[in-house]
Design goal:
Oligomer: single chain
CATH topology: Bacterial Protein-export protein SecB
Strand content: 35-45%
Radius of gyration: 20 Å
CATH superfamily: SecB-like
Structural class: alpha+beta
Shape: globular
Helix content: 25-40%
Number of domains: 1
Number of helices: 3
Strand order of the largest sheet: 1-4-3-2
Number of strands: 4
Length: 157
């Protein structure tokens, strides 16, 4: 490998896996006897962790889907879809963007499939996660960080 090839940015997916998964049906079996139109709430976040091998990162996209009708929880599903990624030769700002945008975009289709299958196996129609624009979420997070830094009072020594 030439020196230029070694210095070029590199991105590879080393492993994809379900790190954690849970399903709760707190009102079963009674909920199956009722005709309900649930409200679906979806929350997600991702977390990147540096691994001991240089340039290796674990990114976990955690998605929580809660279905409620009135005050009753019909089901609660949480899936942490994770991946090990090797990312080399990137500036810190670019690395942060890859971990916050590219990696979650890679993981989302896998999380979508696991959640849909788990909800169907629980006896309900599947819930399909819509596409998420992680770039917009990442830019919003950066804007909030910059705003928070700008509002912090300067300390004099």
């Amino acid at each position: 490998m030439t020196e230029a090839e070694q210095a070029a940015p590199q991105f590879s997916i080393e492993k994809l896996y379900v790190k954690d998964m849970s399903l709760e049906l707190p009102n079963a079996p009674q909920i199956f006897l009722e005709q309900v139109s649930p409200e679906i709430e979806i929350n997600m976040h991702n977390l990147a962790t540096t691994l001991p091998q240089p340039g290796w990162y674990e990114v976990a996209l955690t998605v929580t889907v809660t279905a409620r009708a009135q005050e009753k929880t019909i089901f609660l599903v949480e899936v942490a879809q994770a991946g090990i990624f090797q990312i080399l030769n990137l500036a810190d700002a670019d690395l942060d963007a890859v971990l916050g945008v590219l990696c979650p975009n890679t993981l989302l289709p896998y999380a979508r499939e696991v959640i849909s299958n788990l909800i169907m196996r629980a006896g309900f129609p599947p819930v399909y996660l819509q596409h998420i624009n992680f770039d917009v979420a990442y830019q919003e997070r950066l804007r909030q960080l910059q705003q928070a830094q700008a509002t912090q009072p300067l300390q004099s020594h």
